Amino acid sequence: MKYELLKTEGKAKRGRFHTVHGVIETPVFMNVGTVAAIKGAVSTDDLREIKCQVELSNTYHLHVRTGDKLIKELGGLHKFMNWDRPILTDSGGFQVFSLAGIRKIKEEGVTFNSHIDGRKIFMGPEESMQIQSNLGSTIAMAFDECPPALAERKYVEDSVARTTRWLYRCKEEMARLNSLPDTINKEQLLFGINQGAIFNDIRIEHAKRIAELDLPGYAVGGLAVGESHEQMYDVLDNVVPYLPQNKPTYLMGVGTPANILEAVERGVDFFDCVYPSRNGRHGHVYTNHGKLNLFNQKFEKDMRPIEEGCGCPTCRSYSRAYVRHLLKAKEMLGMRLCVLHNLYFYNTMMEEIRDALDTGDFAGYKKRKLESMEAGED
Ligand SMILES: [Zn+2]
Questions:
Q1: Predicted local confidence at residue 92, as pLDDT
Q2: Where are the beta strands (DSSP E) in 116-269?
Q3: Is there a catalytic annotation at residue 358?
Q4: What's the CA-to-centroid distance between 339 and ligand 1, angstroms?
Q5: pLDDT for res 148
Q6: Number of H helices and number of E strands within the chain?
Q7: Is 272 annotated in the active site?
Q8: How do 189-194 and 139-141 pair as beta strands?
Q9: Looking at 272, 302, 355, 378, which residue is catalytic?
Q10: Which of 215, 213, 196, 189 is nearest to 132 (CA)?
């Protein structure tokens, strides 16, 4: 279980992370399968075809519906969804704080109502670790509070201090769970999460504190929740240098292709975001010449693939005109084809980033990619 830092260019990192479910080449984009499936009728066979390295599932969603105990009984998430490569599960914290109904935060954890049936649920660091252990994911995320981006300083200070105390409890609980005889993945890894909204001094202090725990990886959380892109880049400029360079650095929930390129430059090498799948479901597709809205009339007779030369299952077989027709007719296949193309676009961009870092040309690649995407198609 180790992270090899293969190469750097400025702050940008090219790494290789060895896990019990195989190697992750970084920088990597994790494909978000909220309830153990990518929305848009994408199967794990599809994921293999579109170059997905890591699937991400949501702890909160799987806990409230179907249930982690049942999934454990059925052999864990890998077996359940037939995926033998790495899986990362989030801690449930983000959904608890953003999705769930009336909640009470205490030192022990959070009481909230399920958004499915309103039933009262308690989740603290121990419960989050137990659920993720039941799922048997490769990487488990620490249970944290994600304070609103524009929260008051005093609130953020108290929240971050509690998140630090929770991290110690997460680490202890995971060590206990990993030692039990019936645990599915006894080599489950815990990543810590840096918080502090847009207060750089709070974030830096927190980064130093959590780095002391010597965890296998660290995330920057609580960004892309309402602050500007400039504020987000400023936080990364300030905080990433205080996270261990010889461990994965994960920017949670970010972002557009441009956000990813900017963050790689600042030393981030793990990403996840719902944009490619969500946009795909709405007929918005990414290309090297900008984003296209396939509902647009101008694609009605366009027999070209979404992107010339794209190797995805959609572009290999279908035209813009056909995909547009499917979307207009509300056929499920339309959504599916767009999601497949978009995830392939993201996964391919990460491959290009790794190749550019390997040859020492990341700066040049980034400039060309951004210029091409901004220039548009016509
Ligand atoms: Zn394609």
A1: 85
A2: 120-123, 139-141, 189-194, 217-220, 249-251
A3: no
A4: 10
A5: 78
A6: 15, 16
A7: yes
A8: parallel
A9: 272
A10: 189
Cα(337) to centroid(ligand 1), Å: 9
What separation in angstroms does the CA of 163 have from each of 74, 121, 142, 175?
32, 19, 9, 18
> For all residues of the chain together, what is the average pLDDT?
94
Confidence of residue 101 (pLDDT cuts 50, 70, 90): low
Ligand 1 midpoint to CA 58 (Å): 27
What is the spatial distance between Cα 207 and Cα 135, in angstroms, rounded to a whole number?
Answer: 28
Both structure tokens of 190? 């815990």
Of 37, 157, 152, the closest CA to residue 87 belongs to 37
Work out the angle at residue 183's Cα, subtended by the Cα atoms of residues 180 and 189, and round it to the nearest 5 degrees.
100
The single residue of 46, 68, 90, 144 carrying the catalytic annotation is 90
Question: Where does residue 104 rank: exposed (0-12), middle (13-18), buried (19+ CB within 10 A)?
Answer: exposed
Q: What residue type is 78 in one-letter code?
A: H
**Cα 148 to Cα 146: distance, rounded to the nearest angstrom:** 6
Query: 30 alpha carbon to ligand 1 midpoint, in Å?
Result: 18
Cβ-contact 248, 191 below 8 angstroms: yes
Q: What CATH topology corresponds to 2-273? A: TIM Barrel (3.20.20)
User: CA 104, CA 121: separation in Å to the nearest integer?
Assistant: 11
Range of lowest pLDDT (8-22, 100-114, 121-135, 311-325)? 100-114
Q: What is the pTM of this model?
A: 0.96
The domain spans of the chain are 2-273, 281-375
E strands present in 37-188: 55-57, 87-89, 104-105, 110-113, 120-123, 139-141
> Residue 66 carries which DSSP code?
T
